[in-house]
Amino acid sequence: MLKCSLRKTQTVILFQKRILNVENGLLLPVAVKGKTPEQFTLVDRMQKYHTPGISIAVINNGTIEWAKGYGYIDSTGGKLVNIRTLFQAGSISKAMSATAALNFVQNGILKLDEDINKNLLSWKIPENDFTIRKKVTLRQILCHSAGITVHGFPGYEYNDTIPTLLQILNGEKPCNTVPVIVDIIPGSKYRYSGGGYTVLQEVLIDAGKKSFPLLMNENLISKIRMKNTLFAAILPAKYQNNVAFGHELNGMKAKGNWNHYPELAAAGGWSTPFDLALLAVEIQKGYNGKSNKILSPKTIREMLSPQINQNQGLGWELAGSVNSFRFFHAGDTRGYKCKMIAYTSNGKGAVVMANSDDAVRLIDEILRSIAKEYNWPGFLPKEKEIISVDTSLISEYLGTYALEIAPGIQIVITLEDSTLYTEVIQPSGKQREALYPESKTKFFSLTSNFGIEFFHDKDKIRYLIIHQTQDEDYKANKIK
């Protein structure tokens, strides 16, 4: 008994030490060659990034080693975040929905590679020249290669009329997005599509003959006892006594506390890091043939196999190889940011959820701290060298650029004290940071996972490309 008690005490002390190391070891994505990487505290970085609340769950050796909440549900203080506090899961909803959809495939209700319109009863993907050449399949929808429009959804404020699913698919009022259609040949290229997952929502409803929240509960949530996870366009009152309120880039609370997302499969999930870590652990176990509560090991391995490109599985994003192979997904709704990541070979991973639009870099800094403490492969800061570039050359890059995929979002490039700055101007606010040269045309940020490359055409700068780690590249054309 004494030995057992001593062992438990030692384990608790070890966990507490690890938690302290994580809380005090936040890291930037890039380490400058020849310099010791600077480390930050979680409390300080939450203030810097206007983030009232954070919730974290850490997976080690195939189990949830610890979970903890930090800060407050609201920027005005009051109730503290705990491990049962709900956050919007954003696009992590897509990964959960895809996992549930594969349960339908496994049970013979749906097929991955047949015309999805065969399974749609209440609505059909409109036929056009592209769908005549090639039909949309479930596999294409799950890996974002179906050629379906609508990248993402802005959500609806507290006093807005919420559209029906059919109104969203048809782009009819009071819907605030365009119709969901196919505008490129299905299967021809990767293109992220929230619209595709809204089609998936209708597919599962028609195939399962039940509401989407009930289907998700039966095919995913209840199977692994995710006690604080649900899908809902309007959050039921019984959950609202412990929910983190969303906050804008400037730290102000979102109107109505959060937006509503009737596009449930794409963005309508509510959850906690602890619950999402349960999902990650189940997938890890299934991948290694040690569990089949949701999906068989064979189905999980197909789910985590590269599809349209090396970084995209069925619903999940992929990175690394062999011992560093991992699956992950991020979430982004108004006032909330989150990310989950898990390795298939070593039982490691983590989930971080935050109630702030400004928390993207904070979440990554936390994950790098966890990666360092738990020795994650392939996840530590990358070392880069800052080179010297003539100021006269840099001056050619100055100006305003419009994002090709969303012209309303502009990128302003300025020069101050020989340092290049980028300011992203969007409806939710502005984000500004310094860029450092790694070549005459390529620049990188020390504080986030992106870089910018400038391109000439006939001796003039015509456009730039934003390079993001494990994400799409985006083109922005110079407009002035």
Furnish the topology, listing elements before pairings:
Blueprint: H1 2-23, E1 26-27, E2 30-32, E3 39-40, H2 42-48, E4 53-60, E5 63-71, E6 87-88, H3 92-106, H4 129-133, H5 138-142, H6 165-170, H7 194-208, H8 212-221, E7 230-231, H9 264-267, E8 269-271, H10 273-287, H11 297-303, E9 317-319, E10 326-333, E11 336-343, E12 349-354, H12 360-374, E13 382-384, H13 391-394, E14 399-403, E15 410-416, E16 419-426, E17 429-437, E18 442-444, E19 450-457, E20 460-468, E21 474-478
Parallel strand pairs: 2-13
Antiparallel strand pairs: 1-3, 4-5, 4-12, 6-8, 7-8, 9-10, 10-11, 11-12, 14-15, 14-21, 15-16, 16-17, 17-18, 18-19, 19-20, 20-21
How much of the polypeptide forms β-strand, as a percent range?
15-25%
- Helix content bin: 25-40%
Rg from C-alpha positions?
23 Å
Taken from the alpha-carbon principal axes, the silhouette is globular
The CATH level-2 architecture of the largest domain is identified as 3-Layer(aba) Sandwich
Structure classification: alpha+beta
Low-confidence stretches: none
Report the CATH C-level class of the largest domain.
Alpha Beta
CATH superfamily name of the largest domain?
Answer: DD-peptidase/beta-lactamase superfamily
As for the number of domains, it is: 2
Distance between the termini: 75 Å
In this structure, how is the largest beta sheet organized? 8 strands, antiparallel, barrel
| Average pLDDT reading | 93
By DSSP (H or I, 4+ residues per run), the number of helices equals: 13
Question: Can you count the beta strands?
Answer: 21
CATH topology of the largest domain, which one? Beta-lactamase
Strand order of the largest sheet: 14-15-16-17-18-19-20-21
